[in-house]
Model the fold of this input.
Amino acid sequence: MLKVDECRPNLTLSCYATHVPILSDIYKAFEITPKITFQKTYACSCSCSRIHTHTSCCFTLQQNYKTFREREPMSAYKDKDARINGIKDQIRVVPNFPKPGIMFQDITTLLLKPKEFKDTIDMFVERYKGKNISVVAGIEARGFIFGPPIALAIGAKFVPLRKPKKLPGKVISEEYILEYGRDCLEMHVGAVESAERALVVDDLIATGGTLCAAINLLERVGAEVVECACVIELPDLKGRERLNGKPLYVLVESH
Amino acid sequence: MHAAASLLNSSNLSLRFASQTQTRLSPWIAAPSSVRLPLNRSQNYRIALPPLHSTVSGDSTQPQQMASADVKAQDPRIAGISSAIRVIPDFPKPGIMFQDITTLLLDTKAFRDTIDLFVERYKDKNISVVAGIEARGFIFGPPIALAIGAKFVPMRKPKKLPGEVISEEYSLEYGKDVMEMHVGAVQAGERALIVDDLVATGGTLSAAIRLLERVGVHVVECACVIELPELKGRERLGEKPLFVLVS
Done:
Protein backbone atom coordinates (compact mmCIF):
# COMPACT_ATOMS: atom_id res chain seq x y z
CA MET A 1 0.00 0.00 0.00
CA LEU A 2 1.23 3.43 -0.89
CA LYS A 3 1.65 6.14 1.71
CA VAL A 4 -0.13 9.44 1.71
CA ASP A 5 1.76 12.69 2.06
CA GLU A 6 -1.06 15.03 1.54
CA CYS A 7 -4.78 14.96 1.61
CA ARG A 8 -6.65 17.47 -0.50
CA PRO A 9 -10.32 16.59 -0.46
CA ASN A 10 -11.44 19.30 -2.81
CA LEU A 11 -9.54 18.16 -5.84
CA THR A 12 -11.95 16.99 -8.46
CA LEU A 13 -11.41 14.24 -10.92
CA SER A 14 -10.31 16.71 -13.55
CA CYS A 15 -7.28 17.55 -11.43
CA TYR A 16 -5.94 14.13 -12.20
CA ALA A 17 -5.26 15.23 -15.69
CA THR A 18 -2.80 17.86 -14.55
CA HIS A 19 -0.65 15.54 -12.53
CA VAL A 20 0.76 13.79 -15.52
CA PRO A 21 3.93 12.22 -14.14
CA ILE A 22 2.10 10.74 -11.18
CA LEU A 23 -0.84 9.66 -13.26
CA SER A 24 1.13 7.84 -15.84
CA ASP A 25 2.96 5.93 -13.14
CA ILE A 26 -0.26 5.13 -11.43
CA TYR A 27 -2.00 4.12 -14.58
CA LYS A 28 0.87 1.82 -15.30
CA ALA A 29 0.92 0.46 -11.80
CA PHE A 30 -2.78 -0.03 -11.61
CA GLU A 31 -3.28 -0.99 -15.22
CA ILE A 32 -6.17 1.32 -15.73
CA THR A 33 -7.27 3.56 -18.54
CA PRO A 34 -8.72 6.97 -17.70
CA LYS A 35 -12.45 7.52 -17.96
CA ILE A 36 -13.37 3.89 -17.98
CA THR A 37 -12.84 2.20 -14.69
CA PHE A 38 -10.49 2.49 -11.83
CA GLN A 39 -9.89 -1.05 -10.99
CA LYS A 40 -8.44 -0.86 -7.56
CA THR A 41 -9.43 0.54 -4.24
CA TYR A 42 -6.91 1.58 -1.69
CA ALA A 43 -7.55 2.77 1.79
CA CYS A 44 -6.24 6.18 2.60
CA SER A 45 -3.92 6.31 5.57
CA CYS A 46 -5.36 9.62 6.69
CA SER A 47 -8.49 7.59 7.45
CA CYS A 48 -10.99 10.06 6.12
CA SER A 49 -13.94 8.39 4.53
CA ARG A 50 -14.40 10.73 1.62
CA ILE A 51 -13.61 9.85 -1.94
CA HIS A 52 -10.72 12.06 -2.81
CA THR A 53 -7.51 12.29 -4.64
CA HIS A 54 -4.04 13.04 -3.45
CA THR A 55 -1.32 14.87 -5.16
CA SER A 56 1.58 12.81 -4.10
CA CYS A 57 1.99 9.13 -4.24
CA CYS A 58 -1.29 7.60 -3.36
CA PHE A 59 -4.85 8.02 -4.19
CA THR A 60 -8.07 6.57 -3.04
CA LEU A 61 -10.24 5.38 -5.83
CA GLN A 62 -13.72 4.23 -6.02
CA GLN A 63 -13.82 0.77 -7.45
CA ASN A 64 -16.07 1.75 -10.22
CA TYR A 65 -15.64 5.09 -12.00
CA LYS A 66 -19.34 5.42 -12.68
CA THR A 67 -20.09 5.04 -9.00
CA PHE A 68 -17.46 7.63 -8.21
CA ARG A 69 -19.11 10.14 -10.46
CA GLU A 70 -22.49 9.49 -8.91
CA ARG A 71 -21.07 9.95 -5.47
CA GLU A 72 -19.63 13.37 -6.25
CA PRO A 73 -21.27 14.77 -9.34
CA MET A 74 -19.79 18.18 -8.96
CA SER A 75 -20.83 19.47 -12.29
CA ALA A 76 -23.57 18.74 -14.74
CA TYR A 77 -21.12 19.64 -17.44
CA LYS A 78 -19.19 16.51 -16.70
CA ASP A 79 -22.38 14.49 -16.51
CA LYS A 80 -23.23 15.57 -20.05
CA ASP A 81 -26.93 16.11 -19.57
CA ALA A 82 -28.49 16.75 -22.96
CA ARG A 83 -29.86 20.10 -21.84
CA ILE A 84 -26.45 21.49 -20.96
CA ASN A 85 -25.39 22.41 -24.49
CA GLY A 86 -28.57 24.35 -25.04
CA ILE A 87 -28.02 26.27 -21.83
CA LYS A 88 -24.37 26.95 -22.54
CA ASP A 89 -25.15 28.20 -26.04
CA GLN A 90 -27.49 30.86 -24.66
CA ILE A 91 -24.92 32.43 -22.38
CA ARG A 92 -23.31 35.42 -24.02
CA VAL A 93 -19.72 36.46 -23.38
CA VAL A 94 -19.18 40.22 -23.36
CA PRO A 95 -15.51 41.22 -23.61
CA ASN A 96 -13.96 43.95 -21.50
CA PHE A 97 -16.83 44.31 -19.05
CA PRO A 98 -16.88 45.72 -16.40
CA LYS A 99 -13.25 46.52 -17.15
CA PRO A 100 -10.66 45.71 -19.82
CA GLY A 101 -9.47 42.13 -19.87
CA ILE A 102 -12.54 40.63 -18.26
CA MET A 103 -14.72 38.31 -20.38
CA PHE A 104 -18.11 38.79 -18.75
CA GLN A 105 -20.46 35.80 -18.69
CA ASP A 106 -23.87 37.32 -19.42
CA ILE A 107 -26.84 35.15 -18.39
CA THR A 108 -29.47 37.66 -19.51
CA THR A 109 -29.51 36.06 -22.96
CA LEU A 110 -30.34 32.73 -21.31
CA LEU A 111 -33.35 34.40 -19.67
CA LEU A 112 -34.66 35.36 -23.11
CA LYS A 113 -35.10 31.71 -24.04
CA PRO A 114 -37.99 30.20 -22.08
CA LYS A 115 -37.02 26.60 -22.83
CA GLU A 116 -33.39 26.95 -21.82
CA PHE A 117 -34.25 29.07 -18.77
CA LYS A 118 -36.73 26.41 -17.69
CA ASP A 119 -34.14 23.67 -18.31
CA THR A 120 -31.70 25.54 -16.08
CA ILE A 121 -34.19 25.65 -13.23
CA ASP A 122 -35.29 22.05 -13.83
CA MET A 123 -31.75 20.75 -13.54
CA PHE A 124 -31.34 22.36 -10.13
CA VAL A 125 -34.79 21.30 -8.98
CA GLU A 126 -34.20 17.69 -10.01
CA ARG A 127 -31.02 17.66 -7.99
CA TYR A 128 -32.41 19.23 -4.83
CA LYS A 129 -36.00 18.14 -4.43
CA GLY A 130 -36.30 15.36 -1.90
CA LYS A 131 -33.15 16.51 -0.12
CA ASN A 132 -35.06 18.20 2.71
CA ILE A 133 -33.78 21.63 1.85
CA SER A 134 -35.84 24.26 3.62
CA VAL A 135 -33.90 27.39 2.63
CA VAL A 136 -32.71 28.69 -0.71
CA ALA A 137 -30.46 31.72 -0.22
CA GLY A 138 -29.92 33.86 -3.31
CA ILE A 139 -27.16 36.40 -3.70
CA GLU A 140 -28.13 39.84 -4.95
CA ALA A 141 -29.01 40.46 -7.69
CA ARG A 142 -28.67 37.65 -10.24
CA GLY A 143 -29.13 35.03 -7.53
CA PHE A 144 -32.61 36.55 -7.15
CA ILE A 145 -33.42 35.38 -10.67
CA PHE A 146 -32.51 31.72 -10.22
CA GLY A 147 -33.13 31.21 -6.50
CA PRO A 148 -36.89 31.85 -6.20
CA PRO A 149 -38.01 29.49 -8.99
CA ILE A 150 -35.91 26.75 -7.39
CA ALA A 151 -37.28 27.56 -3.92
CA LEU A 152 -40.87 27.50 -5.14
CA ALA A 153 -40.41 24.19 -6.90
CA ILE A 154 -38.78 22.39 -3.96
CA GLY A 155 -41.03 23.96 -1.30
CA ALA A 156 -38.29 25.94 0.41
CA LYS A 157 -38.31 29.50 1.59
CA PHE A 158 -36.28 32.09 -0.28
CA VAL A 159 -33.84 34.28 1.63
CA PRO A 160 -32.23 37.21 -0.20
CA LEU A 161 -28.61 37.98 0.69
CA ARG A 162 -28.06 41.62 -0.08
CA LYS A 163 -25.58 44.44 -0.34
CA PRO A 164 -25.47 46.69 2.74
CA LYS A 165 -28.43 48.86 3.76
CA LYS A 166 -30.93 47.29 1.39
CA LEU A 167 -32.65 44.99 3.87
CA PRO A 168 -34.91 46.75 6.38
CA GLY A 169 -34.95 45.73 9.99
CA LYS A 170 -32.36 43.70 11.84
CA VAL A 171 -29.60 42.11 9.80
CA ILE A 172 -26.34 40.27 10.28
CA SER A 173 -23.39 41.24 8.08
CA GLU A 174 -20.41 39.39 6.68
CA GLU A 175 -17.51 41.25 5.21
CA TYR A 176 -15.47 39.78 2.40
CA ILE A 177 -12.43 40.70 0.34
CA LEU A 178 -12.62 41.85 -3.27
CA GLU A 179 -9.79 42.17 -5.73
CA TYR A 180 -9.48 45.78 -4.61
CA GLY A 181 -11.06 46.53 -1.27
CA ARG A 182 -13.90 44.93 0.65
CA ASP A 183 -17.62 44.39 0.39
CA CYS A 184 -20.31 43.22 2.70
CA LEU A 185 -23.24 40.80 2.46
CA GLU A 186 -26.28 40.99 4.74
CA MET A 187 -29.06 38.63 5.81
CA HIS A 188 -32.15 39.21 7.91
CA VAL A 189 -32.03 38.12 11.52
CA GLY A 190 -34.62 35.40 12.00
CA ALA A 191 -34.99 34.50 8.34
CA VAL A 192 -33.17 31.23 8.85
CA GLU A 193 -33.33 29.02 11.91
CA SER A 194 -30.65 26.85 13.39
CA ALA A 195 -30.34 23.36 11.84
CA GLU A 196 -32.18 24.30 8.66
CA ARG A 197 -30.71 22.81 5.51
CA ALA A 198 -29.76 25.49 3.00
CA LEU A 199 -28.77 25.89 -0.61
CA VAL A 200 -26.86 28.96 -1.79
CA VAL A 201 -27.61 30.10 -5.34
CA ASP A 202 -25.88 32.57 -7.62
CA ASP A 203 -25.51 32.91 -11.37
CA LEU A 204 -21.75 32.52 -11.40
CA ILE A 205 -18.82 31.57 -9.17
CA ALA A 206 -15.49 33.27 -9.87
CA THR A 207 -13.08 33.60 -6.93
CA GLY A 208 -15.70 32.29 -4.51
CA GLY A 209 -15.47 35.29 -2.20
CA THR A 210 -19.16 36.16 -2.31
CA LEU A 211 -20.28 32.55 -1.94
CA CYS A 212 -17.91 32.14 0.99
CA ALA A 213 -19.48 35.15 2.70
CA ALA A 214 -22.93 33.67 2.06
CA ILE A 215 -21.90 30.34 3.57
CA ASN A 216 -20.53 32.12 6.62
CA LEU A 217 -23.74 34.07 7.13
CA LEU A 218 -25.83 30.92 7.08
CA GLU A 219 -23.47 28.96 9.29
CA ARG A 220 -23.34 31.77 11.81
CA VAL A 221 -27.04 31.26 12.49
CA GLY A 222 -26.60 27.52 12.72
CA ALA A 223 -27.90 26.49 9.32
CA GLU A 224 -26.32 23.62 7.44
CA VAL A 225 -25.21 24.62 3.96
CA VAL A 226 -25.86 21.52 1.91
CA GLU A 227 -24.45 22.80 -1.36
CA CYS A 228 -23.72 25.88 -3.45
CA ALA A 229 -25.35 25.97 -6.86
CA CYS A 230 -24.32 28.19 -9.75
CA VAL A 231 -25.13 28.25 -13.43
CA ILE A 232 -21.53 29.04 -14.42
CA GLU A 233 -18.12 28.35 -12.92
CA LEU A 234 -14.83 29.95 -13.89
CA PRO A 235 -12.66 27.06 -12.75
CA ASP A 236 -9.37 28.86 -13.42
CA LEU A 237 -10.20 31.21 -10.56
CA LYS A 238 -10.40 28.24 -8.17
CA GLY A 239 -13.50 29.43 -6.36
CA ARG A 240 -14.31 25.87 -5.43
CA GLU A 241 -11.43 25.84 -2.96
CA ARG A 242 -12.75 28.86 -1.13
CA LEU A 243 -16.02 27.35 -0.01
CA ASN A 244 -15.02 26.03 3.43
CA GLY A 245 -15.21 22.49 2.07
CA LYS A 246 -18.82 22.92 0.93
CA PRO A 247 -19.72 21.15 -2.29
CA LEU A 248 -20.37 23.15 -5.40
CA TYR A 249 -22.64 22.17 -8.27
CA VAL A 250 -22.52 24.01 -11.59
CA LEU A 251 -24.13 23.51 -14.95
CA VAL A 252 -21.54 25.11 -17.20
CA GLU A 253 -17.80 25.75 -17.00
CA SER A 254 -16.10 28.60 -18.78
CA HIS A 255 -12.36 28.85 -19.23
CA MET B 1 -66.05 52.58 8.66
CA HIS B 2 -68.66 51.66 11.26
CA ALA B 3 -71.04 50.13 8.73
CA ALA B 4 -68.15 48.21 7.33
CA ALA B 5 -67.15 47.02 10.76
CA SER B 6 -70.61 45.64 11.44
CA LEU B 7 -70.56 43.86 8.11
CA LEU B 8 -67.23 42.45 9.10
CA ASN B 9 -68.85 40.98 12.19
CA SER B 10 -72.01 39.72 10.61
CA SER B 11 -71.07 37.89 7.46
CA ASN B 12 -69.50 34.45 7.52
CA LEU B 13 -67.16 35.33 4.74
CA SER B 14 -65.82 38.39 6.50
CA LEU B 15 -65.46 36.45 9.72
CA ARG B 16 -63.33 33.97 7.88
CA PHE B 17 -61.06 36.77 6.76
CA ALA B 18 -60.96 38.22 10.24
CA SER B 19 -60.03 34.93 11.84
CA GLN B 20 -57.40 34.36 9.24
CA THR B 21 -55.93 37.71 10.13
CA GLN B 22 -55.85 36.87 13.80
CA THR B 23 -54.23 33.51 13.34
CA ARG B 24 -51.78 34.85 10.81
CA LEU B 25 -50.73 37.95 12.73
CA SER B 26 -47.10 37.43 13.38
CA PRO B 27 -44.46 39.15 15.45
CA TRP B 28 -43.12 40.44 12.17
CA ILE B 29 -45.70 43.19 11.97
CA ALA B 30 -44.39 46.23 13.79
CA ALA B 31 -46.73 48.12 16.08
CA PRO B 32 -48.08 51.13 14.24
CA SER B 33 -46.68 54.46 15.24
CA SER B 34 -48.67 57.64 15.23
CA VAL B 35 -47.96 57.97 11.52
CA ARG B 36 -50.93 56.79 9.50
CA LEU B 37 -50.16 53.36 8.12
CA PRO B 38 -50.55 53.06 4.38
CA LEU B 39 -51.13 49.36 4.80
CA ASN B 40 -53.70 48.94 7.57
CA ARG B 41 -55.04 45.42 7.85
CA SER B 42 -58.66 46.44 8.41
CA GLN B 43 -58.51 48.75 5.42
CA ASN B 44 -57.76 45.75 3.22
CA TYR B 45 -60.99 44.12 4.20
CA ARG B 46 -62.94 47.35 4.01
CA ILE B 47 -61.95 47.52 0.37
CA ALA B 48 -62.63 43.85 -0.08
CA LEU B 49 -66.13 43.78 1.41
CA PRO B 50 -68.86 42.83 -1.02
CA PRO B 51 -71.89 45.07 -1.67
CA LEU B 52 -74.45 45.26 1.14
CA HIS B 53 -77.28 43.43 -0.54
CA SER B 54 -75.40 40.21 -1.16
CA THR B 55 -73.84 39.63 2.22
CA VAL B 56 -76.73 39.06 4.59
CA SER B 57 -77.10 35.39 3.86
CA GLY B 58 -73.42 34.95 4.47
CA ASP B 59 -73.07 32.08 2.09
CA SER B 60 -69.45 31.27 2.63
CA THR B 61 -69.46 28.25 0.37
CA GLN B 62 -69.56 30.42 -2.73
CA PRO B 63 -67.67 33.59 -1.99
CA GLN B 64 -67.26 34.44 -5.66
CA GLN B 65 -70.96 35.07 -6.06
CA MET B 66 -70.93 37.63 -3.31
CA ALA B 67 -68.00 39.45 -4.80
CA SER B 68 -67.98 42.83 -6.33
CA ALA B 69 -66.57 43.04 -9.83
CA ASP B 70 -63.09 42.85 -8.30
CA VAL B 71 -62.77 39.09 -7.89
CA LYS B 72 -59.20 39.15 -6.71
CA ALA B 73 -60.13 41.08 -3.60
CA GLN B 74 -62.28 38.13 -2.59
CA ASP B 75 -59.64 35.56 -3.27
CA PRO B 76 -58.98 33.78 0.00
CA ARG B 77 -55.27 33.67 -0.74
CA ILE B 78 -54.98 37.45 -0.45
CA ALA B 79 -55.38 37.45 3.32
CA GLY B 80 -52.44 35.12 3.81
CA ILE B 81 -50.30 37.15 1.44
CA SER B 82 -51.19 40.42 3.10
CA SER B 83 -50.48 39.20 6.59
CA ALA B 84 -47.11 37.81 5.54
CA ILE B 85 -45.87 41.26 4.57
CA ARG B 86 -44.03 43.05 7.32
CA VAL B 87 -44.07 46.81 7.87
CA ILE B 88 -40.84 48.38 9.11
CA PRO B 89 -41.20 51.91 10.44
CA ASP B 90 -38.68 54.62 9.60
CA PHE B 91 -36.87 52.78 6.84
CA PRO B 92 -34.96 53.87 4.83
CA LYS B 93 -35.56 57.18 6.55
CA PRO B 94 -37.79 58.57 9.33
CA GLY B 95 -41.46 58.76 8.53
CA ILE B 96 -41.47 56.03 5.90
CA MET B 97 -43.33 52.79 6.70
CA PHE B 98 -41.42 50.28 4.60
CA GLN B 99 -43.38 47.37 3.14
CA ASP B 100 -41.06 44.40 3.52
CA ILE B 101 -41.84 41.47 1.23
CA THR B 102 -38.96 39.32 2.48
CA THR B 103 -41.23 37.84 5.14
CA LEU B 104 -43.62 36.83 2.37
CA LEU B 105 -40.76 34.90 0.76
CA LEU B 106 -40.31 32.93 3.98
CA ASP B 107 -43.91 31.75 3.87
CA THR B 108 -43.83 29.08 1.18
CA LYS B 109 -47.58 28.92 0.76
CA ALA B 110 -48.04 32.68 0.60
CA PHE B 111 -45.17 33.07 -1.88
CA ARG B 112 -46.57 30.35 -4.09
CA ASP B 113 -50.04 31.90 -3.87
CA THR B 114 -48.61 35.28 -4.88
CA ILE B 115 -47.08 33.82 -8.02
CA ASP B 116 -50.18 31.74 -8.75
CA LEU B 117 -52.44 34.78 -8.62
CA PHE B 118 -50.33 36.57 -11.23
CA VAL B 119 -49.93 33.47 -13.40
CA GLU B 120 -53.67 32.79 -13.42
CA ARG B 121 -54.28 36.33 -14.58
CA TYR B 122 -51.67 36.39 -17.35
CA LYS B 123 -51.23 32.90 -18.69
CA ASP B 124 -53.73 33.20 -21.54
CA LYS B 125 -52.94 36.76 -22.49
CA ASN B 126 -50.23 36.02 -25.09
CA ILE B 127 -47.57 37.76 -23.09
CA SER B 128 -44.11 37.06 -24.43
CA VAL B 129 -42.08 39.34 -22.14
CA VAL B 130 -41.97 39.75 -18.39
CA ALA B 131 -39.82 42.74 -17.44
CA GLY B 132 -38.69 42.82 -13.81
CA ILE B 133 -37.33 45.89 -12.08
CA GLU B 134 -34.13 45.51 -10.08
CA ALA B 135 -33.90 44.06 -7.56
CA ARG B 136 -37.15 42.87 -5.96
CA GLY B 137 -38.81 42.59 -9.36
CA PHE B 138 -36.20 39.89 -10.03
CA ILE B 139 -37.79 37.78 -7.29
CA PHE B 140 -41.37 37.83 -8.61
CA GLY B 141 -40.80 38.25 -12.35
CA PRO B 142 -38.91 35.05 -13.26
CA PRO B 143 -41.34 32.58 -11.63
CA ILE B 144 -44.19 34.30 -13.48
CA ALA B 145 -42.24 34.28 -16.76
CA LEU B 146 -41.38 30.60 -16.41
CA ALA B 147 -44.96 29.65 -15.68
CA ILE B 148 -46.46 31.56 -18.61
CA GLY B 149 -43.69 30.68 -21.08
CA ALA B 150 -42.44 34.24 -21.50
CA LYS B 151 -38.90 35.54 -21.52
CA PHE B 152 -37.60 37.50 -18.56
CA VAL B 153 -35.95 40.87 -19.13
CA PRO B 154 -34.19 42.54 -16.20
CA MET B 155 -34.49 46.34 -15.96
CA ARG B 156 -31.43 47.51 -14.10
CA LYS B 157 -29.65 50.40 -12.45
CA PRO B 158 -26.92 51.97 -14.59
CA LYS B 159 -23.77 50.09 -15.53
CA LYS B 160 -24.98 46.70 -14.36
CA LEU B 161 -25.97 45.28 -17.74
CA PRO B 162 -23.05 44.36 -20.01
CA GLY B 163 -23.17 45.16 -23.70
CA GLU B 164 -25.44 47.63 -25.48
CA VAL B 165 -28.25 49.16 -23.44
CA ILE B 166 -30.88 51.84 -23.75
CA SER B 167 -31.42 54.18 -20.81
CA GLU B 168 -34.36 56.07 -19.40
CA GLU B 169 -34.03 58.79 -16.81
CA TYR B 170 -36.68 59.27 -14.18
CA SER B 171 -37.31 61.52 -11.21
CA LEU B 172 -36.93 60.59 -7.59
CA GLU B 173 -38.17 62.55 -4.61
CA TYR B 174 -34.76 64.25 -4.59
CA GLY B 175 -32.85 63.99 -7.81
CA LYS B 176 -32.93 61.56 -10.69
CA ASP B 177 -32.11 57.96 -11.43
CA VAL B 178 -31.60 55.94 -14.58
CA MET B 179 -33.02 52.60 -15.67
CA GLU B 180 -31.44 50.46 -18.38
CA MET B 181 -32.52 47.61 -20.62
CA HIS B 182 -30.55 45.53 -23.09
CA VAL B 183 -30.77 46.42 -26.75
CA GLY B 184 -32.31 43.50 -28.61
CA ALA B 185 -33.84 41.85 -25.56
CA VAL B 186 -37.32 42.60 -26.83
CA GLN B 187 -38.75 43.02 -30.32
CA ALA B 188 -41.29 45.52 -31.60
CA GLY B 189 -44.79 44.15 -31.36
CA GLU B 190 -44.16 41.91 -28.37
CA ARG B 191 -46.65 42.01 -25.50
CA ALA B 192 -45.10 42.73 -22.13
CA LEU B 193 -45.84 42.64 -18.44
CA ILE B 194 -43.85 44.76 -15.99
CA VAL B 195 -43.36 43.33 -12.50
CA ASP B 196 -42.15 44.93 -9.29
CA ASP B 197 -42.79 44.24 -5.62
CA LEU B 198 -44.42 47.60 -4.90
CA VAL B 199 -45.74 50.71 -6.64
CA ALA B 200 -45.43 53.95 -4.72
CA THR B 201 -45.23 57.13 -6.80
CA GLY B 202 -45.09 55.16 -10.02
CA GLY B 203 -41.88 56.82 -11.20
CA THR B 204 -39.93 53.60 -11.63
CA LEU B 205 -42.78 51.80 -13.36
CA SER B 206 -43.28 54.75 -15.70
CA ALA B 207 -39.63 54.62 -16.69
CA ALA B 208 -39.96 50.91 -17.41
CA ILE B 209 -43.04 51.53 -19.55
CA ARG B 210 -41.22 54.20 -21.53
CA LEU B 211 -38.20 51.96 -22.09
CA LEU B 212 -40.33 49.17 -23.50
CA GLU B 213 -42.51 51.44 -25.60
CA ARG B 214 -39.47 53.12 -27.10
CA VAL B 215 -38.59 49.83 -28.76
CA GLY B 216 -42.13 49.21 -29.95
CA VAL B 217 -43.33 46.81 -27.27
CA HIS B 218 -46.94 46.86 -26.14
CA VAL B 219 -47.10 47.02 -22.34
CA VAL B 220 -50.21 45.06 -21.46
CA GLU B 221 -50.18 45.69 -17.72
CA CYS B 222 -48.05 46.49 -14.69
CA ALA B 223 -48.22 43.99 -11.86
CA CYS B 224 -47.16 44.61 -8.27
CA VAL B 225 -47.67 42.77 -5.03
CA ILE B 226 -48.32 46.00 -3.10
CA GLU B 227 -49.73 49.41 -3.94
CA LEU B 228 -49.54 52.52 -1.78
CA PRO B 229 -52.67 54.19 -3.15
CA GLU B 230 -52.25 57.51 -1.41
CA LEU B 231 -49.06 58.09 -3.41
CA LYS B 232 -51.19 57.99 -6.57
CA GLY B 233 -48.85 55.83 -8.60
CA ARG B 234 -51.79 54.59 -10.64
CA GLU B 235 -52.37 58.07 -12.01
CA ARG B 236 -48.76 58.41 -13.05
CA LEU B 237 -49.10 55.34 -15.21
CA GLY B 238 -51.68 57.11 -17.32
CA GLU B 239 -53.80 54.71 -19.25
CA LYS B 240 -51.59 51.70 -18.49
CA PRO B 241 -53.49 49.26 -16.30
CA LEU B 242 -52.07 48.34 -12.93
CA PHE B 243 -52.88 45.12 -11.10
CA VAL B 244 -51.98 44.68 -7.45
CA LEU B 245 -52.71 42.05 -4.86
CA VAL B 246 -52.58 44.18 -1.73
CA SER B 247 -53.29 47.88 -1.33
About this structure: Confidence is low (pLDDT under 50) at residues 1-69 of chain B. The radius of gyration of chain B is 19 Å.
